[in-house]
Amino acid sequence: MSDKIIGIDIGATKIHIGLVQDSKVTRELKFPTLANASRDEIINNLIHKIEEVDDPQVTGIGIGVPGLVDEEKGIIYDLTNIPSWKEVHLKQHLEDHFKKPVMITNDANVFALGEKIFGDGSAFKNLVGVTLGTGFGSGIIINHQLYSGTLSSAGELGNIPYLDKTIEDYCSGKFFFSKYGLKGGEVNFLAEKGDPKALKMFEEFGFHLGNALKIIMNVLSPEAVFLGGSVSQSYEFFKEPMENSLDSYPFKKVRDQLIIQPSKTSDIAILGAAALVVSYQQQRAEIT
C-alpha cells in the first residue's frame, strides 16, 4: 500500500490518530477524548488534530469507534461513554472539511479488518477478530469481506446471556473487576509473579472464553480467530484452560483445524481503521 491514509481510533478516554503508508504508522497523535464536552467541541477538536497529521497525498480517512454505526451514511449512534454523541453525522462533517472519503465502523470490525489486510489474517478466507478489553466485541470476515450487519452490530456476542449475566461479564476485563475488584493488567502482573489466585482467575477466564468461542464456531465456523484488546496480552495464562474448554466442542475435526492466536500486529487499531479505506478502494477498483 503506497497511498497515504489517516486511521483514527476513537476510544472512550482517548483518541489515537495515525498517518499510514506502506503498512506502517509514520506519524501519530494521542489526546484525551473530552468525553464530557459538547458534540461540536469534540468534532472541532478532532478536525484540528487530524489537520496536524494530514498530508496532500492522503486518499482517505478510516475511523473505528466503540458504538453502533450506519456505515453507508457515516452516522454514529450511542457512542460508548460519550454522552453528547447521539446520532452524529461524522462522515459528513469530515468529508465536507477535508474533501476526502471517510469510512467509519465499530472498533471490533476495525480490528478484524486490520488483521485481514495487515496481519496474519491475510492467509484466511473466513476469520473472526475478538476484542478482549473493558468489553467483549467481535468482527467478522466472510469470504475475504467484512460483514458488519445492520448498524455495524454483527458480532456483538458480548450481549448474549451467559450463566447469570452475559458473555461480556465473563469474557472481558469486567470479569476480573466485578468478581475480584482488580483490573486485567493487575491480575496479569500478579500472574507473572506466580500468584496462585491470579493464575486461578485466568483459569476461570479461559474456561468462559472457550465457551464463547464455541458459540462463534457453531454460528460461523471460521478458519481462524484472532484475539485483541488488553486482556489478550495475558494469553499465556488463559490459553490452556481456554483450549481445555474447547475440547468439549462436538466436532473434533472442526476444532482441530481452527487456529486461535493473539494479534501480533502493532498499531492494529490505526492500521485497522486505515484498512477500511483500503477495502473501500479495492471495491471501487473492482467495480470500475
From TrEMBL:
<protein>
    <submittedName>
        <fullName>Sugar kinase</fullName>
    </submittedName>
</protein>
<dbReference type="GO" id="GO:0016301">
    <property type="term" value="F:kinase activity"/>
</dbReference>
<dbReference type="InterPro" id="IPR043129">
    <property type="entry name" value="ATPase_NBD"/>
</dbReference>
<keyword id="KW-0808">Transferase</keyword>
<comment type="similarity">
    <text>Belongs to the ROK (NagC/XylR) family.</text>
</comment>
<dbReference type="Pfam" id="PF00480">
    <property type="entry name" value="ROK"/>
</dbReference>
<keyword id="KW-0418">Kinase</keyword>
<dbReference type="InterPro" id="IPR000600">
    <property type="entry name" value="ROK"/>
</dbReference>
